[in-house]
Structures are given as C-alpha cells and as structure tokens.
Batch of 2 targets.
Target 1
Amino acid sequence: MKTVGLLVNPAAGHGKALAAAARARTRFAALGVTVRDLVGDDVAASRTLAHQAVADGVDALVVVGGDGMIHLALPAVVGTATPLGVIPAGTGNDQAREYGWPRKDPERAAEIVAAGNTRTVDVGVAVTADGRTSLFGSVLASGFDSLVSDRTNRMRWPHGRARYNVAMFAEFVNLRPLPFTLTFADGRVVERDLLLVAAGNTRSYGGGMQITPGADPGDGLLDVTIGGAASRRKVLAQLPDVYKGRHVDRAEVEVVRTAGLRVESPGITAYADGEYLGPLPVDVSLRPRALTLLVP
C-alpha cells in the first residue's frame, strides 16, 4: 500500500473514531503509507468523497468507524479492484468480529491495511418497497429487531449501547407475532406469524448477537433465521443463547440457506448493518465475491 483514502465518521463510537483515525494516521506515516483524508460534512458528502477517491486510484479505501461506515463505503468499492480496509471504531463492530480486525488497536489495524492481505467476500443486495437498492455486508433484519431499531432511532436518550437496550426492553413489553410471507429462491413460500426474520451474510449483529451463526460470507448463500411465535418468557430465556448462536437449536427457530428471498410484512421496515433500508417487502440477494477486504 502506498496511498489510502481514510474515510472518517467523526460521530462513530461517540467520538472514538477521531482518536482512532489520528492513531492510525500516525502509524501509516511510520509505515510509509500516504493518507488522503476523507471527511464529509454529511452522509452524502462522505459517499461522494469515497467514490472520488476510488476513481482517483487510491490503493485502498479505509473506513474509520463501525458497520454503518462500512455500509456507506460499500457502493464505492463493490465490483472494483479497490480493497476495503477498516479501522474499527464503532459501537457494534460486528464485521470486525467476523473478519478478525482488532477492535481496540488502530495501530494494528493500520498495519493490517499496509500489509495488503486480501479476501474476497459476498455482498448482500436489498431492494425495498420504495425502490431503493442497498448493499450490505452483515445481516438484514426485519420484525422484532427492526422495530427495536425504529424505536432506537426515535430516541434521543440515553446514548450508545444503553439506548438500544432501552428500546429493546420497550419493544419486548409489546412483543407480538407479526404476519410474514417469505418467498425463497427455490420457490418455497412460508406464510406464518413470526417474531423476526434475519438474513445473514455474516454471523452477528447488535454487537455480538450471533443471529445467523452458520453464515459464511464466501459461500454465495444467505443464512436466514426465522423466529417463530413464542411467549415472552421463552424469548427471554433464548436471549443468552443468541450471543452464542445456540438459539437455532430451539423448536421455534428455523434456519434456511438460500441464494435469495422476498420478505413481506405490513408496516415493517428493513435494516442492515444497523442502517435503515426501507419498508417491506424487500427482495434480498447476494453478489458473490464482489468485495475485496484487507484482512489479517
């Protein structure tokens, strides 16, 4: 690596990204890597800067932040020869967990980028009811988990992980099955009342919850976890299992491996990489091995 574009979200990790970027920048300099700083005033400006840096031929686009920053950067690098590097500095950092990027060591992360070792992985594609097409790297969520995200985004207090936990508790109190229709790539149709549907390219979301524990980002398939109706008591008992991926062994949970699916449920939205995508129905598919990542 000779020149990298360093895309920073100043708000990521409640300000941790700025400090992480400064530490990574110092390490890049010591390694002889030239840094092109990319700091936009908003999401649209950051997206434009990322595309321009790739068009200008940087050796890598490197994001400083979490899953949301990776989500923002994907359209700039997917389908190109430019690899994506990550200096983890977000709240959840689920893709950092997946690919072994150091979550508390920006200098080490910079060294991984500079070393230039790469891996090609699949990228999720979601087309929502409003016609918007989004790329995602980790898990697409709908149902209870997307309702939690909806509530989290409406809240202004508390901050960080605590806000998500408060939103989860509030939605748990109102927990109810939702009518879903799922249509899989092989033509199979499932019409059931469900609590959630999660389509995973990688294994976890929400800061380590292994909702799709068998997902492999290089196999060309999505792992879809279907959470059937269950009492609040049963759901509460399952929560510790989700962090270990053991919930999929329960009778209420089904896992389907598929190249794509359509998810329908009235009034429900879809999220991926922790970012709002749009209203259901959503058509979900993969672009196999469309992304090159810099990895340890």
Target 2
Amino acid sequence: MSFFRQFGDLMMMGARAHAKWEIETSQRIMGDRKRLVILGLLLIPILLGGIAFAADATGVLPAMLGGKTAYTPAFYTPTIFFASIGVGIVAGLITGCIGAGGGFIIAPALMSVGVKGILAVGTDLFHIFAKAIMGSVLHRKLGNISVSLALWFLVGSIGGATLGGYINRTIYEANPILSDTFITTIYVLMLGFLCSYALYDWYRSMHPVQKADKSGPVVTSAGTLTGLAQKLQGISLPPMIHFDQGVIPGGRKISCIFLVAAGALVGLAAAIMGVGGGFLTFPIFVYVLGVSSATTVGTDIFQIIFTAGYAGLGQYAIYGFIFYTLAMGMLLGSLVGIQVGSLVTKVVSGQTICALYAIATSAGFINRAFALPPKLAKMGYFSMSKETAKMLDLVGNTIFFVVLGSFALWVFYIFFTNIRTLKGEDQPAHLKEARA
C-alpha cells in the first residue's frame, strides 16, 4: 500500500504539472490575437478538404488526401469535425476543472467511435504538438531551462519516440486488430491504476488523517533531494552534466546516462500512448534525478514541443497516421473547455474535484476494459459470439459517453449558474461556509 500511495502521488503530481502547462498554454493562445489568426489559418486545410470531398463526384480524391501520404484530412465530414470538437471540449473541461488527466480520455474516446488505435495516437500527438507550438513562449522560459539537461534528455526522448512509433507501426502492419488490442491493453493498465488511485485519493479527502503521514512521498525543495536522487547524483559516469547553478550554490551534477534513459522512457510512452510525456517528466526529474522544480518546468515545456513534434510528425504523419481534421477539432474544443473548466474550480470544493477525477478516470478505464475482451476474441485467444462482443462494446461505450457527457453538462451548469460569482459579484458557497 505504501508503494502504491507513493507512486500514485508522484503520478498525480506529474499529471497536475502537465495540466498546468495545458491551462497556461491555452490561456496564452486565447489571449493573443496573432495566435488566434494562426489557428484560423490552420483550419484552412479542413475547409479545403471539405470542398474537395463535396466536389468529388467520382469518389476518387487526390492521393494526398489519403493512404500512406496523408498530410491533409484522410476523410472529411462535418459530423466528424464537430464530434472531435466535442471530444476536445470534454478533455479540456477535465484538464481545466480537475487539473489533471484530460488527455488520457482522448485516445479512448476516438477509439470508441471507430478510429483505429494507431490513428488515434498519432492524431492526439499532433494535437498536442500544435497546441505546444502555438502557445510556446520559450524565449521567456530560457532562464529556467538547462540546455545541457534538455539536449541529453531529448537524445533519449527522440530515441524512445522512434522506438515507440516503430513498435506501433510494426504491430499495425502485421495485424490492425493486434494494434488496437495492444493500445487498448496499455490504456487499461494506465487508466486502471489512475482510477484506483483517484478513488483512493477521493476517500482520503473524505476521511482526512489528523496526524502527519510519514509514509508518503518525500517532498523536495531546492536544497533537499530524495534518497534515490542522491544515489544517482553520487554515481560518476562521464560525461557529467552540471545544472541548477542558479538555484543552489555550486549547482548539481548527474551522469548523462540517466538523462538519456529518462528521456527514452518519456519518449516511448509518448509515442505509444499518444501523450506529451509531461506527466512523466515532472516526477522523474524532481524525485528521481533531483532537478529543481523551476528547471523542471522549463525543461518540460521544451521537451513537450520536440518530443510531441518529432513523434507526431516523424513517426506518424509521414506514414499517414494523423487525422488532421480530428486534431484541429480537438484543439478548438480543448481551448474552450480548459477556459470553462479552470473558471469552475473557483466555485467547487476540493473534495468535489477529487470525486470528478475519480469518475472521469473510472469511465475511461471501464470503456477500455469492456473493449478489450472482444479484441482478444478477434485475435483467437478465446471464443466469443458476435452478439456478446457487440453487447460489451455497447455497454462500455454507453457508460463512457454517458458519464463524460453528464460531467460536461454538470460543469457547464455550474459555470452558467455561477456567472455572478465568477465575475466577482458574489462569493462561492463553500467559502461562505468555511468562513462561517
């Protein structure tokens, strides 16, 4: 239980750090007219794809619109585009309102509506890269980036992303059903752990412990390190990388081997799951490598852009595994959802937020868990009737979309019924009760 709690706490810290980046990036885009113009320009290919689709009477579109050289929408309908906006809105609401985990439901949501797993992964990576590059403020963050740390980390992350992309593509080329099964299994394991920990975290928030709990993770500051970080920094394997000179006197140093290994793990996870990797970078840097929080935040922003960009473009786009229409729709939806979700946090209690995260991750887990047996049956591991397979898919998808749809409606209800509070004209009810 102690290991489960510590590992869960670290994963949550990473997820929250990544969500914070998503929120800041979205607010930066929405608050800048130039970036909004760029976003509008990115939507032009979608409109052109729609015109081409509507004008093509013979059903033979140019090769660039599909197949292995798909750089523009492989298929276009208004329904697909608006559905992707809905997925982005819900993911944004989760990220903004809960502060963690919104990106984990994108690939399951796309797979639930029939998008191939490898296409869902590549599309999600491209969506993250587009958001990162549009909201980038690297020129303001350079003071918090250790260039040597970042470069060695990127050596590993690019290698890991290359391997992850190769694994996904190889499995898909061998058997598309096996590809979906593999990606679904990864999400079952990840979401299973996250939803278990989220339920446990919600239980803890409902039953707070009065005395200090010494079994939790060690919280580091600029001058302290975890035991593991001290051991790793004490191993002298050249070349040694110096960092944090501006944080503590004399700075610190660590072997580049550990940075490359950390980057490889993050890049592998990003390429296989279709996530930016930020949820892993924060706990690995702070608690495993012993990097200060300030340097970690800057380096994380740096790596997300290059890791997601390389994985999305270099490992998926050039092979035709990116659905541009979906990516742009998700980007639009998430920008709106994050703004609304982050405002709602001002009028709901912390316990409610814990409960919401538990519900959202549990819905994602149930969805993928119900989808896994039919896929395993298709692979021939056991027999299952088509009716049973359809029933499991229907139950999993229904629970998933009903829960997330209800969550979205609830958040928007809270938002619109608390307009006065959000404008500063009133105080949230839970704050009034606390003061009373």
